[in-house]
């Protein structure tokens, strides 16, 4: 049995960059893709499965002293999906799933950051997958540091809102409609 791809949503994870505040007098502006991860979790026939995106990129601006001014754009090339099997990866690229031939990139653009206290923030923005745009928001935990900061969070999406898993795959009986995007993003300070 193969594992279908359900996660462009992962890019939603990258959204986290648009978040956060803290005590460090540093402005962050460089995403460390090698130290960052964007993954996803879904359920197929009652079994929870994990996957990830091997590549993603982002532009961000985040000043802990002014989190409300933060901005983030994250792009995930969907052809880099890793569902755990070659068959699942190939199927994820098909028209019924991500249709990577017509829609090769998933994109998140932040629109605002709201402090929640204790280094937690709510990030809002627009997520585009397979030509479908949706407003999303999710909590992010910010961990400051002198040489890098991390942003951790997750976002639960309904795959059918983005046209992911059409036809025979549209039923939640085989693949659950809910997909959780999980991310750990590392950002480095801007050069002085």
From TrEMBL:
A Pfam family annotated for this UniProt entry: YceI
Domain Lipid/polyisoprenoid-binding YceI-like, residue spans: 23-188
Keywords of the record: Signal
Signal peptide limits: 1-25
InterPro entries for the chain: Lipid/polyisoprenoid-bd_YceI, TTHA0802/YceI-like_sf
Stated name of the protein: YceI family protein
Annotated organism of origin: Denitromonas iodatirespirans
């Amino acid at each position: 049995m193969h594992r279908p791809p359900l996660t462009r949503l992962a890019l939603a994870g990258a959204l986290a960059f648009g978040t956060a505040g803290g005590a460090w007098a540093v402005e962050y502006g460089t995403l460390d893709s090698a130290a960052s991860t964007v993954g996803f979790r879904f359920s197929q026939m009652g079994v929870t499965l994990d996957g990830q995106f091997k590549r993603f990129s982002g532009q961000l601006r985040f000043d802990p002293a002014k989190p409300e001014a933060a901005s983030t754009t994250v792009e995930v090339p969907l052809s880099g999906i890793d569902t755990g099997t070659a068959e699942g990866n190939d199927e994820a690229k098909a028209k019924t799933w991500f249709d990577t031939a017509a829609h090769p990139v998933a994109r998140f653009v932040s629109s605002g950051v709201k402090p929640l206290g204790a280094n937690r923030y709510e990030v809002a923005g627009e997520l585009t997958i397979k030509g479908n745009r949706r407003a999303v928001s999710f909590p992010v935990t910010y961990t400051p540091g002198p040489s890098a900061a991390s942003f951790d969070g997750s976002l639960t999406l309904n795959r059918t809102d983005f046209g992911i898993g059409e036809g025979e795959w549209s039923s939640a009986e085989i693949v659950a409609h809910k997909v959780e995007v999980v991310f750990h993003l590392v950002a480095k300070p801007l050069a002085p």
